[in-house]
Amino acid sequence: MSLVDCSMLELAGRLERKEASSVEATRACLSRIDAVDGRVRAFLKVDAAGALAAAEASDRRRAAGKPAGPLDGVPVGLKDLFITEGLETTAGSKILEGFVPPYDGTPVRLLKEAGLPILGKLNLDEFAMGSSTESSGFHPTHNPWDLARSPGGSSGGSAAAVAAREAFGALGTDTGGSIRQPAAFTNLVGVKPTYGRVSRYGVIAFASSLDQVGPLTRTVADAAALLQVLAVHDAKDSTSAVQPASDYRAGLEGGVAGMTLGLPREYFADGMDSEVEAAVRAAARAYEKLGAKVVEVSLPHTRYALATYYLIAPAEASANLARYDGVRYGLRAEGVKGLGDLYVRTRTQGFGAEVKRRILLGTYALSAGYYDAYYLKAQKVRTLIRRDFEAAFKEVDVMVSPTSPVPAFRLGEKTGDPLSMYLMDVFTLPCNLAGLPGLSLPCGFTRAGLPIGLQLLGRPFDEARLFQVARAFEREHDFSSRKPGL
Amino acid sequence: MESSDFQAVIGLEVHAQLLTRSKIFCGCSTEFGAPANHHTCPVCLGLPGVLPVLNRQVVELAVRTGLALGCQVRPRSVWSRKNYFYPDLPKGYQITQFDLPLCEHGRLEFDVGGQMRLVRIRRIHMEEDAGKTVHDAAEGESWVDLNRAGVPLIEIVSEPDLASSEEAAEYLKALRDVLVCLGVNDGNLEEGSFRCDANVSVRHREATELGTRVELKNLNSFRFVRQAVDFEVARQVDVILGGGRVVQETRLYDSVKNETRPMRSKEEAHDYRYFPEPDLPPLTLDDAFVEQARKALPELPRARHARFVSQYGLPAADAKFLVADRALADYYEAAAAKAPDARKLASWMQGEFARLLKEQGGTVSNLKVAPAQLAALLSAVDRGEVSGSAAKEVLGEMFRTGEEPAALIARKGLAQVSDAGALEAAVDEVLAKNTGEAEKYRAGKKQILGFFVGQVMKALKGKGNPALINELVRKKLGG
Fold first, then answer.
1. Exposed, middle or buried by CB within 10 Å (0-12, 13-18, 19+), for B2?
2. What are the φ/ψ torsions at residue B237 (nearest 5 degrees)?
3. Can you give the pLDDT at residue B111?
């Protein structure tokens, strides 16, 4: 097996046993990037020098018998929403082109402290607003399983890089499905942790009450190991959870016998791809064979989730993106006449169409006279959606659903119709509204060879159980071992 | 209708900077006067990805203020974003409190012309300050200094209970005294750490409804508050008497021209699009926190003033002088505990003590003279060991060296001569030298008594006990 085909933990084992070095692994990734990224276009910025320097330091630690952690030396990529000191950070937007931050965000600091070399910054929908990586201000990313198709979004660059073996794992962010949907489109494991589990300090904000950081990896154990590095309380994020994370790998092989899994009726809606539905129902039957009880549950307010999300997320975004004003950093339009002109021209030139659309939506929803009818109402519905889950989780331990109603779609297929793009997140965004942990894992392929994702949703801070349930399925199936024929 | 038929209705909004060492949502210093953008970090610069973390001391000081002003403190208050674009507002929104503020329903009592007035406090909330934009008109450039961005403020909003510019100014002074006494604000209007906007309307005396209100900005001294309100009230009355209607707007006070002029109309007013700040959980305070703050409240200036008058028998003016500065009042009380006469102590502290204090920078916090030493000096005067005038010299030396008064009196030879023999000898000598004057006195020119006393004092180099000399001279001259 080629080095780049190793999972993160397999590579860590080789590093531990001195069968490979971090520098070799990093060079292997860089070679792979050279070979395939011209077609995949996952990376916005490759930091070869930085990654190799970190790899050399890691090799020295391992040689001294003092690794910084189990993943020391395993190279990863970062969605370009993570603030990296000294390394350009753009959020996929022209408005931040050339912005080199003076600080590291907390997730990046934790990765560096754990010894993981950072290969570079990965493409995304501009400011994470999108489900296809096509709204990137720079270029779209291609799905390694079919280069004519989207890898999903907004963490499409992260998903494509890991699927294409350009990185062993990657970090993404998930506001309404932006980790899980790309994972489903590219045959990866993707985790959106409980809101507050991972610090958002140094992660460029899209919708602050919904954003969460999480891993994209090729195996369940890798996701557990990578999340373990990040799942610590951070005093710099006032919404960071204080309670310590459990050991995500301790019970990984515990199986599902005795557990109750729920199939939310509302997640098997009309318009779902029949092959996706068949694969998910087959997965449910597989869980039954493994000893789980599978029952149908109802989340009656699900049909309001999309509308709720598209009020709350743009409202928060409209404020979060106000700081990109041309005054202190990033793009400043030239030849402006006065302050108003500076704002208008900078933001007109710097932001893409989807970002502008959402700023307008959010500004409208918060405006005097509309606030009660839109934003406030949406917050009330959000509470109802959360209560749906609370009630359902009294009956079941984990919920099982499709991650996306369809497999990866063609690039350009939905860019002319924003609403059809928004519908891509219909199964993933209720989990963000409720602040719950969600995970997507490979559960099959369409006849055309496109990956299908299975979504697991859990109780707050019950990530360990999601990993256990995911692993139970992964152990019995070989979907994860398949790789795209680039 | 004439102008005297109208009365002013005034409410004030005060922004007071809290005396914390660091900013409200980051660790940067709040020091005033540093080079531009010196006290900044990613958080207060509003860089991408940063998050606010609340400074606990801000809450403590705000709660202290609320309790002192008799407010109800909300067990759960909410942070909001106030959205508007300006170069000195780095995030494009200000983190403040909107519909669920920290404190509500308070009151402030104060005196206007000897009459007690009570103004209701509508609310007190916490927020971050913005930075400063400096316009260089000559170069056509503007510069932004974000040292002040993120400095903690409280906004104290009164009900429209004030009926004149004088009341407004007295309310402000009383409020400032309370904040300074609480140690939450330095009361400095010039540096902008205590700022005021006024909402002014007028109504006919028989009207029950309030008139249209105008918000006045740029009132950065007590005098400007008075002048701006007076101008604005007269302007509004003129508008109404002229058959017009007052327009709801924000007006800027121009202290050079002493006038207010329109800044923005109601139509141009910002829609701030307030919504709850998702980066900060609601602030919850338990009863223990609030009770602890309540117990730690100092005696407020007004209550202390009343006590000084009753407990120490001070004239109101003396009490007012002492109470105006909490540390000075504390100093007075410590000295009064040991001084022979609390009233004399008070007049000393207003006189020579205040003069020396001013020379040294005006604060008793790092004074070399301990309250007990001041009391000891006054005791020496009381016992006739040192004359009042010599005591002033002694006090000056105490300010410089911190020496004990007894030691200083001895060292400088300033002990007062009270020895009857020594005094009598000096008196006899003076009378012998001035027989002509003595005859005049005996003949009825009693007003020249002071001449003899002065001559004796001169002979004794100022160290004679004046009361005893007086008595002796009178006795020798036959009454």
1. exposed
2. -65, -40
3. 87
Write out pLDDT tens, residues B21-43: 999 999 999 998 899 999 999 99
CATH 3.90.1300.10 fits A3-258+396-481, yes or no: yes
Tell me the HSE value of B309 on the side-chain side, using a 13 A CA sphere: 10
Question: Would the CB atoms of A103 and B46 count as touching at under 8 Å?
Answer: no
Conformational region of residue B414, where left means phi above 0, alpha means psi within -120 to 50, and beta covers everything else: alpha
Counting as low any pLDDT under 50, the low residues of chain B are none
Indicate which of A82, A109, A238 best probes the interface with B, i.e. most B CBs within 10 Å of its own CB: A238
The pair of structure tokens assigned to A441 is: 């894992």
Residues of B in contact with A343 (CB under 8 A): 85
Residues in chain B with CB shorter than 8 Å from the CB of A328 are 45-47, 90, 144
φ, ψ of residue B274 to 5 degrees: the values are -60, 140
Report helix, strand and coil shares of chain A as percent, to nearest 5.
Answer: 45, 15, 45
Cβ–Cβ of A208/B278 closer than 8 Å? yes
Q: How many CB pairs under 8 A join A and B?
A: 101
Task: Sketch out chain B's domains with CATH numbers.
Answer: 3-290 (no CATH), 299-411 (no CATH), 420-477 (1.10.10.410)
The answer to whether residues B122 and B158 touch, using CB atoms and an 8 Å cutoff, is yes
Which B residues 123-162 touch A at CB under 8 Å? 142, 144
Alpha-carbon span A422 to A428, nearest angstrom: 11
Tell me the percentage of chain B whose pLDDT exceeds 90. Answer: 52
Model confidence, pTM: 0.89
Domain-wise residue ranges, chain A: 3-258+396-481
With beta carbons under 8 A apart, name residues in chain A contacting B144: 327-328
**pLDDT < 50 regions, chain A:** none
**pLDDT for B223-247, tens place per residue?**
999 999 999 999 999 999 999 899 9
- DSSP secondary structure code for residue B264 in this structure: E
pLDDT at B382: 83
Write the ipTM.
0.96
At which residue do the structure tokens 């992964």 appear?
Answer: A474
Determine whether the interchain pair A366/B83 forms a contact, defined as Cβ–Cβ distance below 8 Å.
yes
Alpha helices of A72-155 — where are they, by DSSP H?
A: 106-113
Instruction: Report the residue of A96, A210, A212, A328 to disrupt the B interface, i.e. the one with the largest count of B CBs within 10 Å.
Output: A328
Nearest by CB to residue A367, choosing from B92, B271, B280, is: B271
Cβ-based contacts of A325 with chain B (< 8 Å): 85, 87, 92
- A158 catalytic? Reply is no
pLDDT of residue B479: 60
